[in-house]
Amino acid sequence: MRRLREERGWKQEDLAERISYSGKHVSAVETARRSPTLGFSREIDSALGLAGKAEAFEREWRRTRDGVLLEGFPEYVHYERQAVEIRVFDIGVVPGLLQTTAYAETLAAFNVERGSVTAGQAAQRVAILRERQQLLELRRPPLCFVVMDESCLRQMVGGPGVMAAQLDWIVHLAARPHTYVQVAPFSLGERRPSHMPLTLLTLADRSLLAYTEAQARGHVVREGATLSYLNATYHRLAAEALSPADSLVMIKALRKDML
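^ thats the sequence. predicted structure below, dont judge the formating
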């Protein structure tokens, strides 16, 4: 909301004049001190010309309300659609943008089994993921740099058949000119710069933001020392990880062991 407001040259008070909420309320929502309501989301969509569109805030509000997405993640997805570069580090599971449908459905089914989501919510999560993955199919997709901890490749999800297909898909994506895959091997040990997943987005205006997750919610970081630290952390990860070529050798070797 902040980005779209600033693109129009509006101050918070300017946006407030176009809706039935105060500038103080707008500020509280932008800084995540107050959660947006359905009514607020609809008025913002009307003011910004987003009503009925895929990126509408009402749509993101409904996803959060239904428990489909972690709180804070819809904000990240909104920025992800605008990114020209995506940099991802993940631990334990293959990053979402690289997951096959079978892999994603297996993870979703486990969440249903343990009772954290309903079957309908799980299906929505997979559908949202497939929608996000369309970014990589665009005629001019964003550059996508992925560093995966070795655990992402070795943790068996869905059995050998699902994992074999998943590894094949990673190899396929890595062959594309806009996607770069690296593995952070177990041998890094204590030298691994981060023990938490991390995503960095570069937008068209070359501004940078980061996304991290805690157990309760996700957080978008737009500025300050934390953003600088996370940016430096990702680049250290990429420097310490195997090269793309050596990473593919490891992935193909693991795939061969599943035959």
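The mean pLDDT is 91.
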